[in-house]
Structures are given as structure tokens and as C-alpha cells.
Amino acid sequence: MDRVCIVGAGIAGAGVAQAIGDAASVDVFEAANVGGRMASLERAGCRIDTGASYLEVDDDQRSLIERATTDLREIDAPIWQFDAAGDLSEGPNQPPRYSTPDGIDRIVADLFADAGATVTDHCPVERIGRSAGCWRVETREGTHDAEQLVLATPATATRSLLRSADWTADFRTYLADLADSIPYRTMDTVALHYPFAIDRPYFGLVSLESVYDVAWIAREGCKRGHVPSGEAVLVVQFGPAWATTHHTIRPDEAARAAADRAADLLDDEELFEFDWFEYQRWGSAIPGRGPGDSLLDRAAEFDLALAGDWVTGIGRTRAALESGLATGRRISNRL
Ligand SMILES: Cc1cc2nc3c(=O)[nH]c(=O)nc-3n(C[C@H](O)[C@H](O)[C@H](O)COP(=O)(O)OP(=O)(O)OC[C@H]3O[C@@H](n4cnc5c(N)ncnc54)[C@H](O)[C@@H]3O)c2cc1C
């Protein structure tokens, strides 16, 4: 049976594994946690989605995920929007949005498990190489061979793996340069915990213009199982303009700024005083554009495939999943 090695256990990698299914033996290596930017953490009985706030998928993708995840839950409150003056209004279209009581990363873990892939997390791929028509993947746990290699990593990591690859084809440099040319936006996430409930008619508030400091605020308690009753968690995401002009900010200062903006926007001075917070900087949060199509066909000539939101140029969960599924189908057809 052919061996496929997937580097990166985000939703794009999970899409690849799903589309391949049992047509090949699939090994996945993940540098950190399964889920990638669909990240969740647990603290004091709260489950907080710190990267992607929700999954938004089309009907086909939802059927696939529902088969793999028993606990997919729709977030049954709408998203509202705010303008430069801080005025709130109801948002225009409201497609269904999802997470799970265990956190949004559970969706990715379940997709891999359902596909029968073998996933090793906290195991970065340090080097890749190609010789005699076979890929070699080096991790601190050893060397693994595969007939097909999938880089389901962000463009930044893809570039690094290609630059250091033991692979003589000219295409390697071309591909590394292409990945290097993808711009990314940086985003900061601050989760604020309050020992009291916050009741509002919306789940999230989205900025109408990207120039504002806060791009997004979510009430994590709208997701079933995420926040105990009588408490609240607000997830405040600062957009690229703020993150780049505050690149040396301390986590406690970011939390203070997040609480000030939350109190302003939700018009409630009680929100100045949170009792704990979590902070995370996402250096490669959202790709600014994609690389173009020809690359996928050319990479396939070397039994190499790429998947991820950056391949589509759209920094959304559904785009990353679609990229992974399309890549997985292409590989299946070649096996
Ligand atoms: C703050 C934030 C908020 C967002 N909000 C939303 C939202 O609400 N809705 C939405 O649809 N989208 C949202 N997005 C975008 C969405 O999260 C991404 O588009 C999507 O998760 C990307 O998936 P991916 O599989 O392409 O990449 P990733 O999830 O980044 O997965 C790639 C994986 O590769 C791993 N990796 C890298 N290098 C190596 C290596 N050398 N060895 C092994 N593994 C490696 C990484 O650790 C990572 O886990 C948000 C993103 C951010 C950062």
C-alpha cells in the first residue's frame, strides 16, 4: 500500500486525510497541537477558541464533518457589526457557524480519527528530502519514507521546509520563493474572563472596517459547554494594524487594552475589570493572497502536494478544508 505523509495537522491536513481515506496509509506529523489555527485552550472550567472563532462550512463539508464529529454544535446567536463610532447594528447575512463543547480543535481531531490517519503531535518535521522517487521526512523521532508528501503547513513553514530540503530539483527554489511571497496578517487574541454573566443578543461583534484596532469580539458563552453559568469569557481579536503597531506589547498591556475596548463597545464599565486573561499572538494569522494554480500541477509531477488556506488565498476554515479535500482527491486519483 502507498504511504502518504502529511506535514501539519490543521483542517487542511484533515481534509487531505479524509479524501484519501483507506486508499493509502496516512501518517501525519504536527509541530504543535492538532487543529493548528483552529485552536482551543482550557482554563478553570472554561473552553476557549483562541484562533478561528467558528467554523463556517458549505452543506457538503458539513455532512462530512457531522459524520466524523458527534458533537458539532451550531452557535445559535447572530453576529452583529460595529462602526468607527462604536455604534452596533445587526449583521446582514447569517450562515450557520459551528464549534463543539470540547473546543473547535475537536473538529479537526475527529476528522483525522475518522479518516484512520496516524497522527503524531508535538513532533515538528525538521527536514524533508527526495531521492530515488521517494520522500524522506525527518523528525526527532526518526526518519519516515513516503511515496507522496503533502505540505499542509502555512506558507511561512512551507518555505522553510523547502529551503532546507535535501532535494535537487530547480522547482524546489521556485516553490520556496513562491511560498515566501505570500504576505500574512498578524493578529492578537486576548480572552478575558469575568466572574459574572454577560447577556447580549449577539454572539460576536465584527468591525466594519479593518483599520480599527479591534477586529472581532466573541462571547464564548454562546458556545454550548464553553463557559460555566454565571461567568463570561470575551475573546477580543486585535486586527493587523494594531498588532503591527504594538509588536512589543506585554500580554498584560494587551489584556488591559482589550478590556477597555470591550467595555466601550459593549457599553458596560463593569467589563474594565476582568479576573484573568489569556493572550496569544498569531504571527501568520491570515494569508493576504494565494500563489496561483499552476503550482499544484507542477508539484504533483514530484509526488508533492500543497494544502492550506494560503493555497486558496482565503484565510477561512472552509477554504482550508476545501483545499485539503481537493488535494486529497488528486492524490487518490493518482494512487
Ligand atoms: C486569530 C484568528 C482568527 C480566525 N478566525 C476565523 C474564523 O472565525 N472563521 C474562519 O473560518 N477562519 C478563521 N481564521 C482562519 C482559519 O483559522 C484558518 O484559515 C485555517 O484554520 C487554516 O487552516 P490550515 O490547515 O490551512 O492551517 P493551520 O491551521 O495553520 O495548520 C497548519 C499546521 O501545520 C503545522 N506545522 C507548521 N510547520 C510544521 C512542521 N515543520 N512540522 C509539522 N507541522 C508543522 C502547524 O503547527 C499547524 O498546526 C482565523 C485565524 C486566526 C489566526
From TrEMBL:
This chain belongs to which protein, by name? FAD-dependent oxidoreductase
SUPFAM superfamilies cross-referenced by the UniProt entry: FAD/NAD(P)-binding domain
Q: Record's Gene3D superfamilies?
A: 3.90.660.10, FAD/NAD(P)-binding domain
Organism of this sequence = Halococcoides cellulosivorans
GO MF terms listed in the record are: oxidoreductase activity
**Where does the Amine oxidase domain lie?**
101-331
* Coiled-coil parts of chain: none
InterPro entries (alphabetical): Amino_oxidase, FAD/NAD-bd_sf
